[in-house]
Design brief:
Largest sheet: 6 strands, mixed
CATH class: Alpha Beta
Number of strands: 10
Order of helices and strands: EEEHEEHEHHHEHEHEEHH
Distance between the termini: 34 Å
CATH superfamily: P-loop containing nucleotide triphosphate hydrolases
Structural class: alpha/beta
Radius of gyration: 18 Å
Length: 247
């Protein structure tokens, strides 16, 4: 589904590459986790693949389409859930979703039906006509997710979709994502919640300093790392225990 070859990105005035000569292949219908320390390049990689920013060098294809030649076609087949809430706080949940759905070319009863079904599944029906600014973090996360899947994308990019939410919201979000994956959606996901990634992802890649340093199923990575009992043990063994603060 995704083929990446020697992909690099260096931001203007930056001292280092955020992504450096990265090669990666992601199969269709995977739940693929990108995990790494702060500043490792996870968000940059997702931004590159979703055509939000341009690479410095290298190339990639999605579903056989080249990002340079087929940008409009690619945008139609992907959904993006960013770290920050991409919603209008003074509009209601329904107004937000009608607006974002219309951007994908959806309209009328078809769009309303998709909104109502997703809202019901994610437990937000009684809040449909409330302003987003009054919502809790977990509720905003769920509406953010719905806005990205109304057009039924083939690939869904999620940048820390459960950060800052309560356990109940996290479980609802993960269950919903798994149901989307079972229907055929390929999911690319970043998170600092390694226990969550261990149980949720079919494969993971550990990224550090813009490069992939390990890749495989969580079980494979745990088995191959000496004295590792879980994915967090693997992560710390490969990336170290030093703080990764950056500005």
């Amino acid at each position: 589904m995704i083929q990446i070859e020697q992909l690099s990105k260096k931001y203007k005035n930056a001292d280092f590459f955020s992504v450096l000569e990265l090669d990666l292949c992601i199969d269709e219908k995977e739940i693929f986790g990108l995990i790494g320390p702060n500043g490792a390049g996870k968000t940059t990689l997702i931004s590159l693949l979703s055509s939000l920013i341009k690479p410095t060098s290298g190339t990639f294809t999605i579903n056989g389409l080249n990002y340079k030649k087929n940008k409009n076609e690619l945008k139609k087949m992907i959904g993006i859930v960013p770290q920050e809430y991409a919603l209008y706080p003074t509009l209601t949940a329904f107004e937000n979703l009608m607006y974002f759905g219309s951007m994908y070319g959806l309209k009328g009863n078809d769009l309303k039906t998709k909104i109502n079904l997703a809202i019901e599944t994610l437990g937000l029906t009684k809040f449909l006509n409330k302003k987003i600014g009054t919502f809790s973090g977990g509720m905003k996360r769920r509406v953010n997710l719905i806005a990205s899947i109304l057009h039924e994308p083939k690939i869904l990019f999620l940048d820390e979709p459960t950060v800052g939410v309560d356990v109940q919201s996290k479980n609802v979000i993960i269950d919903y994502l798994q149901s989307l994956n079972q229907k055929g959606t390929t999911i690319i996901y970043t998170s600092h919640h390694l226990n969550e990634a261990e149980t949720f992802c079919t494969k993971v890649a550990i990224i550090d300093h813009g490069k992939i340093i390990a890749k495989g199923s969580p079980k494979e990575l745990i088995t191959h790392q000496e004295n590792a009992n879980n994915l967090e043990d693997v992560f710390l063994a490969l990336t170290g225990k030093m703080l990764r603060d950056y500005a």
